[in-house]
Amino acid sequence: MERVAAVDGDLIGNDVMKSRYRTLACAAAALACWLSSKDTPGLAAQSTTPIDTFRVVKAYPHDAGAYTQGLIYRDGFLFESTGLNGRSSLRKVKLETGEVVQQRPVDAAHFAEGLADWKDQLVQLTWQSNVAFVYDLVSFAPRRTLSYSGEGWGLTSDGKRFILSDGSDQLRFLDPETFREIGRVAVTDGKMRIRDLNELEYIRGEVYANVWHTDRIARIAPDTGRVVGWIDLQGIMSSGYKLESEAVLNGIAHDRAGNRLFVTGKLWPRLFEIEVIPRGRR
Length: 282
Known about the structure:
Layout: E1 6-7, E2 10-11, H1 15-35, H2 41-44, E3 51-61, E4 68-74, E5 77-82, E6 89-93, E7 100-105, E8 112-118, E9 121-126, E10 131-136, E11 142-147, E12 154-157, E13 162-165, E14 170-174, E15 181-186, E16 188-189, E17 192-193, E18 197-203, E19 206-211, E20 216-220, E21 227-232, E22 249-255, E23 260-265, E24 270-277
């Protein structure tokens, strides 16, 4: 998800978007402050949700020009959706080398967002176009389009339905054939609603969600929306690489067969396999 950013010197957006960006940025900053202040008595009292840390198992090359909006792992490859108008794409990427072995550009009218697989298809969201593109998994040939209301940020599937985030505190459940909304939940940690939910991945009965402009992944129980845990990834990427304000953590992929967890960010030169270290264990 990208709202307004200066990339390669080009400003993306208009005055309305800038105003919205400032509002969202303030909200994101406030959330980031809360998430990083678990030792502050007044804020710590709001949540007793476990905060886990991580260990890097292996680092892989990643295209530093890829504005990562969606990421999945399937059949030995990464599939990635990249954003920005005029630079959006669907990609098949070799994990070990970061080589883009297959790519399909998205029309410049659209800002590509989240990505999920469904049977032999890939489904790619757009930010504000209210359309999802459905591609053949192997050839990337377009199959059809699906429409939905509101913005599209992250997308995943639990095998029965799609789960979509739209930048709010809501997870929306969609029929996999029609994209019709069939339910939704508000995501909360205690009494606090968690907004700016971004890229999603369904892992062992939970939805893992990036939260825009934070270094945390929320682990969410999809039936209730309750945050059952956080993964703190602060420091995984050196701040020296984060030259753009939007070069933030975004991208979660799970290798179900090998039980490997991968994370990356927008414009990051690395993709990481990580092990989650439960709280209290070193």
